[in-house]
Structures are given as structure tokens and as C-alpha cells.
């Protein structure tokens, strides 16, 4: 089959131009000092049809040849104990673990530590940024969401989906968690294989997959965009909410996600080193994505209504109030155009809570030392994660 030649097909579309000329994209350019153009489009666009072939082969060799629990146990053994020359394992598994247990020359553990500390130090603002900017903002890119729809993520429910995302994010952003055999490293490898398992399942069972327009399921370019969400978009959201960060913390955040991307099998030349590079890469990718469709709206509303479904808060008025606060933050962080496309409800006094966060953060940072902020942030984030894990573990959430 002839390989599709991709073009920046939406570069003249209103949603693309508005985002980059007057909206959040313009703010990202100003924030990062990026010089955006299409001169490198062909250098990156072929990754729209590129996938993690090593991960896919591991799934075929291990998960498709035995029961899922047995396969998972085998992979966990390799993750926690490593592999030796004498281990009798498939060539694909050997390739995967040799790659992920080889420390790249560029890796700087001290920088990763600074990035992890920033994630913890910003406490609940980190979780607000992930949910009300990174996740819900990602739903505006219609083609990016197609694997979620194909794998019936809506049936799974937003509580479970959010719990899994939070579990991954918290575990890869703790101090030293990305060292080989540690919890963050384990989450990265397992997530990589989940992506491969989902991709192979989609290709086998979802006959309507439109490869030419949507790219390969969970392709390398979409993966790049997702992890730019965890770095660039996340960082800018913290900035909008009034958090400050040092140059080292900022560099550390990008370095942390570059290494997570490396462990996940994303090609290294797709992994940005800083906010300027990330913005320039993101600009190119957004030119192949149409705006929200009906699936985007369903995903966004599922996430908004998660607060009403989630029994962590006991009383219904508490849940309604939490939903209102998330809606306020979504309107504050995202462009009005995006919120309208996603049909985010309009609410009164929507800027009061986000503006009060800005003031609170200014006072909070002046009163508490960096070390205390990190310790408190870690404790509070772990509590939120444990609440979610307890709910999804001890309930009928699918």
C-alpha cells in the first residue's frame, strides 16, 4: 500500500488560525519565545503513521500467547528484576528491556528531580491543570480522541479513566520514581504495553478505522502531542494560575517528560527539550487536527460530570460545587472558542475562583519554604490519588 503523504491540511482553517493568532496558541508563543513555521513539517509528519513496533511485538509474543494475568506477571518480573543474558525470553521482550534499561547519555537525574519537585510543589494546582486544561483541552482535537472512542472509553466511565490517568501521572512524578525497577519506571513500561495492546485490538476489531485521516491508532506523533500536554501545556497552566517556578524547575519538567517519553518508546527526535521547542513541535501537529466533533463533546461532558458521579464527596451539594469550580477553571484556562465547541456550560462569576487562586498562590509561596511546599504537595496529591483508587477498587465502576 502506498504511504500517505500528510499535509498541514487545517492550517487555513478558522479553529487553527484563531488558536495560534489570538488564543492560547498565541499565548504559548509569547510564553516560550517560539518561532513557528511549517519548514520542518515533513521532518515530523511521517510519524503520524509510525508506531512503537517493539511494544507491539512484545504484546503479540507474550500477551497474545497466554492468559492476560500470566503475561502480566511475566512482564512484572522483568520490570522489577531486570533481564540477564541467560533469561529465556522472546527477542522482542529482550529488545524492549535492553532499551528501557539502557540509560541515555543525555539523562540528568538532578534535572528530573527538579521537575518532579515542581509537580509536587504546585499541589492541587497541578491536578487542576491536568484535568481542566490538559485533559479537557485535548478533547478539542477530534482525531486524537478516536482511539478512546474505539476502545469504548465512555463506557468505562470518567471516574475510572481519571483514576488511571492520575495513578500514572502521580507515580512518574515522584522523586526517584523513574529509576530502573522503581514505581514510575514500572508505570511507564506498563503504559507502553497498554498502548500497544489497545492499538493491536483497534486494528483487529475496529473495521471503520480511517488510517489516512486519523493516522495509525496511538501513533508516535499523537504520543508526542500528548506528552507536550504534560509538559508545555501543564507548565503554562501553572503559570496562568499564578504559580512561579525557577529556570531549573522548568528545564527539569521537560527533562522528566523527555525521559518518560523515551521509556514509552516515543522516537527521541519527537521529545522536546524546552518550551520553545515544544511549542514549535505542537504548532505543526495541530495543523492536522480538526476541531471538536460530537465524540469530543461527549468526552468533555463525561469529564465535567465526573464530579457528580464520584462518591468521594459525601453530599450532592459538595459535588455540584466541585463541578462548578472545575467549569470555572476550564473557562479561565481554555479559549472561549474551545469551550463553546465543547459546549462547556456557562456559569456566573466564572473568574472569581481562578483569580482567587492567583492571589492565594502569591501569598502561599511567600509564607512557606520550597521544601515545605514540596512535602505538603506530595502528601495532598497522594491523598487525592488514594481516594480515587479506593473508590474504583471498592465499587462497581467498570
Automatic annotation (TrEMBL):
<dbReference type="GO" id="GO:0016491">
    <property type="term" value="F:oxidoreductase activity"/>
</dbReference>
<protein>
    <recommendedName>
        <fullName>ER-bound oxygenase mpaB/mpaB'/Rubber oxygenase catalytic domain-containing protein</fullName>
    </recommendedName>
</protein>
<feature type="domain" description="ER-bound oxygenase mpaB/mpaB'/Rubber oxygenase catalytic">
    <location>
        <begin position="154"/>
        <end position="345"/>
    </location>
</feature>
<dbReference type="Pfam" id="PF09995">
    <property type="entry name" value="MPAB_Lcp_cat"/>
</dbReference>
<dbReference type="InterPro" id="IPR037473">
    <property type="entry name" value="Lcp-like"/>
</dbReference>
<dbReference type="InterPro" id="IPR018713">
    <property type="entry name" value="MPAB/Lcp_cat_dom"/>
</dbReference>
Amino acid at each position: 500500500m502506498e504511504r500517505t503523504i500528510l499535509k498541514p491540511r487545517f492550517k487555513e482553517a478558522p479553529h487553527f488560525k484563531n488558536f495560534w493568532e489570538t488564543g492560547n496558541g498565541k499565548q504559548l508563543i509569547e510564553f516560550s519565545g517560539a518561532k513557528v513555521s511549517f519548514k520542518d513539517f515533513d521532518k515530523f509528519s511521517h510519524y503520524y503513521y509510525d508506531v512503537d513496533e517493539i511494544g507491539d511485538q512484545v504484546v503479540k509474543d507474550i500477551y497474545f500467547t497466554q492468559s492476560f494475568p500470566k503475561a502480566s506477571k511475566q512482564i512484572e518480573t522483568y520490570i522489577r528484576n531486570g533481564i540477564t543474558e541467560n533469561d529465556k525470553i522472546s527477542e522482542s521482550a529482550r529488545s524492549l528491556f535492553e532499551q528501557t534499561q539502557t540509560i541515555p547519555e543525555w539523562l540528568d537525574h538532578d534535572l528530573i528531580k527538579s521537575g518532579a519537585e515542581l509537580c509536587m510543589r504546585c499541589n492541587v494546582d497541578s491536578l487542576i491543570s491536568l484535568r481542566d486544561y490538559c485533559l479537557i483541552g485535548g478533547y478539542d482535537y477530534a482525531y486524537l480522541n478516536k482511539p478512546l472512542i474505539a476502545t469504548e472509553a465512555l463506557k468505562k466511565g470518567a471516574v475510572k479513566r481519571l483514576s488511571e490517568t492520575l495513578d500514572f501521572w502521580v507515580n512518574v512524578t515522584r522523586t526517584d520514581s523513574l529509576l530502573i525497577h522503581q514505581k514510575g519506571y514500572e508505570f511507564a513500561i506498563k503504559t507502553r504495553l497498554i498502548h500497544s495492546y489497545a492499538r493491536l485490538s483497534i486494528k483487529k476489531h475496529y473495521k471503520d478505522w480511517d488510517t489516512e485521516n486519523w493516522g495509525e491508532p496511538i501513533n508516535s506523533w499523537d504520543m508526542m502531542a500528548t506528552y507536550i500536554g504534560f509538559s508545555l501545556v501543564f507548565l503554562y497552566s501553572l503559570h496562568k494560575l499564578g504559580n512561579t517556578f525557577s529556570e531549573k524547575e522548568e528545564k527539569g519538567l521537560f527533562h522528566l517528560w523527555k525521559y518518560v517519553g523515551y521509556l514509552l518508546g516515543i522516537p527521541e527526535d519527537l521529545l522536546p527539550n524546552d518550551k520553545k521547542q515544544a511549542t514549535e513541535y505542537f504548532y505543526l501537529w495541530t495543523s492536522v487536527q480538526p476541531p471538536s466533533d460530537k465524540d469530543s463533546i461527549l468526552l468533555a461532558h463525561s469529564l465535567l460530570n465526573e464530579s457528580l458521579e464520584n462518591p468521594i464527596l459525601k453530599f450532592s451539594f459538595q459535588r455540584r460545587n466541585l463541578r462548578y469550580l472545575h467549569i470555572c477553571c476550564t473557562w479561565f484556562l481554555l479559549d472561549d472558542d474551545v469551550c463553546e465547541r465543547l459546549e462547556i456550560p456557562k456559569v456566573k462569576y466564572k473568574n472569581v475562583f481562578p483569580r482567587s487562586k492567583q492571589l492565594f498562590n502569591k501569598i502561599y509561596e511567600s509564607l512557606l519554604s520550597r521544601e515545605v511546599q514540596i512535602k505538603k504537595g506530595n502528601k495532598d496529591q497522594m491523598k487525592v490519588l488514594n481516594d480515587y483508587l479506593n473508590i474504583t477498587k471498592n465499587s462497581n465502576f467498570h
